[in-house]
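Practice problem 4.
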């Protein structure tokens, strides 16, 4: 996969996240991933490990966007 392909893929993911696409599915998937312990992570196949990481990164991006929205509103209110 080329760098441009990765960028294009991430851009598409960000657009989908911004539009709330698959939000519930992502939330459930990330909740399951966060409940995994170290032993469970070590037993994952390479493909599953990569897939899980991608799901967690998507969740992290969503949370970061929400944190920024809240910070912007706090600033706007001068709290």
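Answer key:
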């Amino acid at each position: 996969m080329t760098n441009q392909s990765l960028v294009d893929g991430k851009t598409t993911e960000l657009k989908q996240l911004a539009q709330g696409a698959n939000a519930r599915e992502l939330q459930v998937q990330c909740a399951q991933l966060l409940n995994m312990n170290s032993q469970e992570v070590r037993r994952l196949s390479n493909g599953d490990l990569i897939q899980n990481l991608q799901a967690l990164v998507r969740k992290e991006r969503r949370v970061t966007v929400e944190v920024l929205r809240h910070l912007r509103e706090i600033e706007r209110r001068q709290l």
